[in-house]
Amino acid sequence: MSRLITKLLVANRGEIAVRIIRTAHAMDIATVAVFSDPDVDAPFVAAADEAVRLPGATPAETYLRGDLVIDAALRVGADAVHPGYGFLSENADFARACADAGIVFVGPPPEAIEAMGSKTRAKELMSAAGVPVLPGLIVDDELLAEPDRLVKAAAELDFPVLVKAVYGGGGRGMRIVRDLEALTDTVASARREAASAFGDGTVFLEHYVSRPRHVEVQVFADAHGDVVHLFERECSIQRRYQKIIEEAPSVAVDEHLRERLGSAAVAAAAAIGYVGAGTVEFVLDRSGRFFFLEVNTQLQVEHPVTEQVTGLGLVRAQLLVAQGAPLPAELRHARITGHAVEARLYAEDVPAGFLPATGTIHRFDVPAFDGVRVDSGVADGSVVGVHYDPMLAKVIAHGATRDEAIRRLARALAGTRVHGVTTNRELLVAILRDEAFRSGDIDTGYLDRHDAVAMGSPATSADVLATHLVAAALTAATERRANGILPTAPPGWRNVPTSPQRVVFALSGPGSSGRGVSGREVEVSYRWRADRVDVTVDGRAREVVVHRLDGEQADLTVDNVRSTVRVHRVGPEVYLDGRGGSTVARETPRFVEPGASAATGSLTAPMPGTVVRVAVERGAAVTAGEVVLVLEAMKMEHAVTAPHDGVLSALDVRPGQTVDGGHVLAVITPGSAL
Fold first, then answer.
1. Burial of 254 by CB count in 10 Å (0-12 exposed, 13-18 middle, 19+ buried)?
2. Other CB atoms within 10 Å distance of the CB of residue 589
3. Which of 4, 62, 117, 170 has the most CB within a 10 Å radius?
4. Per residue, what are the HEC states of 153-200?
5. How far apart are CA 317 and CA 277, in angstroms?
6. Which residues have C-beta within 8 Å of that of residue 288, sequence separation ≥ 6?
């Protein structure tokens, strides 16, 4: 039965909400956004025709409240809801509630979502449908209460084993266990994280395939029983079990394997009566055998690479099928053209262990290149908070060959400016330029074998750093001159010779100013003369020729190398981009006001979050590396450990307490237990 969609409510946020709204408008469908309090000024809200506030900040208060979403749809007269990915997209009760309210749910039937909602039940169904699966073991409260029984049962699976959440995905509640001794504690941690992320802490174990590839197949089905596959995607480059680089097609898949994977994926979708866009995920071993992982009953984050190599619009197809139309002809006759690679740009601190980063984005700019697509949910002024996934944008490149697509993407990311928050940009560029990645020698353990910290914090040459800091000093001088008493006089002008002007910059920003330099102070001195400027950087004289200066750009020749540096100031922070690199520096004040400092031995929160567990009592002895407490941020757990041996002399937090980044959590002092 067909039903025309005239007004679509998008029950999501960020880049996927922007994407859905754009496609709906192209189909002459009015759009409605829902937004939480932190998202009131987000780009997706402005993009929609109407927007309804969901009071609150956390997902549980807002985007996960199906009743509020349906109420919003009814209030504005929306006849359909698109859930995007995450949040309510794989919630069978929500899909059923939409139908009960007379609203079209742009996704699969509730029965299909329920069938795949439990990974253990999903494996049983897939095995019955002839899809290869790995053996597993579900861990319930009863089994967890008997550690000896749990260890004995797990030993039969053959180590290492993978702990996975029965409900949900995205790497939450997922751990590798390599020996029996670590099993009980690891399972307990995974259960807490799964319960926080998905509302159910049930986990299961399965044998972990050594050096596997993560390969998934895009499927599409209509309500008339037709199912097709739209080829595979390679998603092996992951950190903490979350994908960061995806591509289509996979270099490990030839035509014969592609046909086998596609057939298995179609069988999986048909077995559960699937409708709409879905993804069947497999693990592929080095011999070419593949095993079922799960079915994602939603539009995946990485769907743009499939769109780029097929020329299809998957959101458009979703909306057509949701209206009762048969599969569009272009889906039935899809073919692969060229290669596409996608990188997920996250606000995160790679050297600190991929900790989520927060802050205000002062500048967001991806250069416009042929063959490069940007799906973004942020803009200048956007605030990255603690409540949601820290992905800022997806940058996708398409080329005639894999090498061409990779090179385009690397160049676009290298020229991207994201000021105000720490990102994984440098790591993404380093991976794309890595010889092993370019050769296709990848698997899910790629970042375990590579030094992510070193890759994400590339060394900046002294010459590039000098050019950046000279640009910072001279553009600041130019601004002062423009606002000074004698704007036509050179910066630092005196009617008698005097000492050079001096400015000290403190380098900051992991990965943005070069490995080993963050936190270091560098002095730049300069003196303008009639025909030149004398400059020293860190005590070394530099030959500088100024071609053009303004407040945001410096065209300079430094030691016979000419380049243009873009300068962006936000208070004392200076963001510098050019000559093949980026630097973040803070101009230090000449006179520092006294202020309080944290006591020696203080453990501070590495990011804003919630204390979920305190592992050590006040007065107890701790050893270096011992877990003192556990924070949760953006639905991921982060252990805070003792930096050295000592005694927990102060404990200033409790479970359930929300803390800001830099908050003093505890103090460890030398000595023995009190």
1. exposed
2. 9
3. 62
4. HHHCCCCCEEEEECCCCCCCCCEEECCHHHHHHHHHHHHHHHHHHHCC
5. 8
6. 257
d(CA 93, CA 512): 45
What does the pLDDT look like over 582-620, one tens digit per residue? 999 999 876 544 444 556 678 888 777 889 899 998 889
3-state helix vs strand vs coil in the chain, percent to 5 = 25, 30, 40
22, containing H or E segment: helix 14-26
Both structure tokens of 359: 């802050």
What tokens were used for 490? 């050179």
Q: Where are the alpha helices (DSSP H) in 27-109?
A: 43-47, 66-76, 92-100
DSSP 507-519: EESTTTS-TTTTT
Per-residue burial over 477-511, b = 16 or more CB atoms within 10 Å of its CB, e = otherwise: bbbebeeeeeeeeebbeeeeeeeebebbbebbbbb
Separation in Å, CA 342 to CA 109, 313, 402, 643, 644 = 29, 16, 12, 37, 41
pTM for this predicted structure: 0.83
Concatenate the DSSP letters of all residues of 412-476 into one string: HHHT-EEESS--SHHHHHHHHT-HHHHHT---TTHHHHS-HHHHHSPPPPHHHHHHHHHHHHHHH
Task: Tell me the per-residue pLDDT of 518-528, one tens digit each, with 9 for 90 and over.
Answer: 568 999 999 98
Tens of pLDDT, residue by residue over 607-666, are 778 898 999 988 899 988 888 988 887 667 778 888 888 999 988 888 988 887 778 899
Structure tokens at 336: 């692969």
Of 209 and 112, the structure prediction assigns the larger pLDDT to 112
Backbone angles phi, psi at 112, to 5 degrees: -70, -40
Whole-angstrom distance, CA of residue 663 vs CA of residue 609: 10
- SS3 readout for 77-95: CCCEEECCCCCCCCCHHHH
Give the distance, in angstroms, between the CA of residue 106 and the centroid of all CA atoms in the same chain: 25
Mean pLDDT of all residues in 242-251: 97
Strand, helix or coil at 258?
helix
Is residue 428 within 8 A of residue 343, CB to CB? The reply is: yes
DSSP 8-state assignment for residue 387: S
Classified as helix, coil or strand, 19 is helix
Q: Beta 227-239 vs 175-177: how paired, if at all?
A: unpaired
Dist CA 636 CA 220 (whole Å): 31
At 640 the three-state DSSP class reads strand
* Residue 335 buriedness (CB in 10 A; 0-12 / 13-18 / 19+): exposed
Neighbours of 394 (CB within 10 A): 23
DSSP 39: G
Number of other residues whose CB lies within 10 A of the CB of residue 404: 16
pLDDT digits over 437-476, tens only? 999 999 999 999 999 988 988 888 999 999 999 999 999 9
Tens digit of each residue's pLDDT (9 = 90 or more) over 230-246 = 999 999 999 988 999 99
